[in-house]
């Protein structure tokens, strides 16, 4: 029993200079990954220099990273932390009661469903709020048709609709919209995102959900890196540098396409704040871990339970975001990919698969 207690108790960690340097390296690389899409979208000089294909690659590559993060870097570690192999009877640090039910998968399911409920409730409340902020008129009407969307200026009154000679159906407007797009626009498609066709409330809520999931995960990563054993810290540090930068690409592209300028300067700064928040969370987690390094061990029973529960919760959030917000919204319900060339479609899918594949491969070491 004493051997188990020793293995699960606090332990001293070395290579403190490396761990301190990692704080600044990860901060810089995370900022580069997250800020690149925002700067490329919002700074005119960079927008002209950076090819649209590069931006699209970063967008879909980062989306694939988010999907793999939810499965490989969150759900799998959660099963290790809360699984039968980590129970006291098996020589681990947690109670045997955790082995009586697949808690990581149950928590992931609960988190995924909870994210859906929170999003639909917040969407309704957010839509009402946006209408009040824009003078009682929604910024644009969401008209679904064949998987696409079209912005229709709302009429001022029912009488105007009846009397206006230019009033046409949403189907006619959508048809006109499609005809006006040239084939060159379909093939170039630079700096374009399905999120731009969403109501402001839907886009904002989707990004905030993604931000919450990656921020929670980033803090845990920082704690783990600052308290992991000396034998593993170098490899884990290298993996986390790429992990955070790639994940930042996925988040940064969603922040870049938020259209909040008409809500005031306070909201216009939200993408920049989101990028800074994400980039600083892993360094903050590392700083906390280093400050408590003599009294905390990520192999202890309490730390295993906490990290396992939070990993499973974050996994549900990111899996919902990756499948609903990124895959379904960006591909299945995005009319652009119903009409563009097969080359463009497979390029986007390939970038998505590459991001997911590389992040899944990094799971071999972290």
Structural class estimated from helices and strands: mainly alpha
Helix content: over 70%
Number of separate domains: 1
Global Rg? 23 Å
Low-confidence stretches: 138-196
Q: What portion of the residues fall into strands of 2 or more residues?
A: under 5%
In spatial order, strands of the major sheet run: 1-2
Can you offer a commentary on this structure?
- A hairpin with a 2-residue loop joins strand 1 (143-145) and strand 2 (148-150).
- Helix 4 crosses helix 10.
- The protein starts with a helix and ends with a helix.
- It has 366 residues and is mainly alpha-helical.
- 72% of the residues lie in helices and 2% in strands.
- The chain is globular, with a radius of gyration of 23 Å.
- It has 15 helices and two strands.
- It has a two-stranded antiparallel ribbon.
Short description:
The chain is mainly α and 366 residues long.
Which key features would you list for this structure?
366 residues; mainly alpha; two-stranded antiparallel ribbon
Write the layout of secondary structure elements.
Layout: H1 2-8, H2 16-42, H3 44-49, H4 52-82, H5 103-133, E1 143-145, E2 148-150, H6 158-163, H7 170-180, H8 183-188, H9 200-227, H10 230-256, H11 265-268, H12 270-291, H13 301-332, H14 336-339, H15 342-362
Helix pairs in contact: 2-10, 2-12, 4-5, 4-10, 4-13, 4-15, 5-9, 5-13, 9-10, 9-12, 9-13, 10-12
């Amino acid at each position: 029993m004493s051997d188990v207690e020793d293995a699960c108790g606090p332990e001293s960690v070395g290579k403190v200079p490396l761990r301190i340097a990692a704080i600044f390296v990860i901060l810089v690389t995370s900022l580069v990954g997250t800020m690149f899409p925002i700067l490329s979208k919002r700074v005119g000089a960079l927008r002209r220099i950076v090819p649209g294909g590069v931006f699209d690659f970063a967008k879909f590559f980062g989306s694939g990273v988010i999907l793999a993060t939810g499965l490989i870097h969150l759900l799998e570690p959660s099963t290790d932390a809360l699984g039968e192999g980590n129970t006291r009877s098996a020589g681990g640090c947690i109670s045997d009661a955790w082995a009586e039910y697949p808690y990581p998968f149950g928590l992931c399911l609960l988190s995924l469903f909870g994210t859906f409920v929170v999003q639909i409730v917040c969407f309704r409340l957010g839509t009402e709020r946006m209408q009040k902020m824009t003078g009682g008129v929604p910024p644009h009407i969401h008209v679904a048709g064949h998987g696409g969307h079209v912005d229709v200026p709302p009429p001022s009154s029912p009488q105007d609709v009846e009397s206006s000679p230019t009033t046409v159906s949403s189907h006619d407007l959508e048809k006109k919209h499609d005809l006006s797009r040239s084939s060159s626009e379909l093939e170039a498609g630079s700096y374009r995102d399905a999120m731009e066709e969403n109501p402001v409330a839907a886009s904002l809520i989707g990004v905030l959900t993604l931000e919450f999931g990656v921020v929670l995960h980033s803090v845990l990563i920082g704690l783990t890196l600052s308290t992991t054993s000396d034998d593993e810290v170098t490899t884990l540090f290298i993996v986390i540098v790429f992990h955070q930068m790639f994940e930042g690409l996925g988040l940064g592209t969603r922040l870049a396409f938020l259209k909040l300028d008409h809500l005031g300067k306070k909201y216009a700064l939200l993408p920049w704040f989101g990028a800074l928040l994400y980039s600083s969370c892993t360094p903050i987690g590392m700083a906390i871990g280093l400050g408590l390094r003599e009294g905390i061990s990520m192999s202890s029973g309490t730390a295993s339970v906490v990290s396992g529960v939070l990993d499973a919760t974050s996994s549900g959030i990111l899996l919902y975001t990756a499948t609903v917000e990124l895959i379904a919204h960006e591909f299945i319900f995005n009319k652009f990919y119903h009409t563009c060339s097969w080359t463009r479609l497979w390029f986007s899918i390939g970038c998505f698969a590459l991001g997911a594949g590389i992040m899944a491969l990094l799971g071999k070491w972290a």
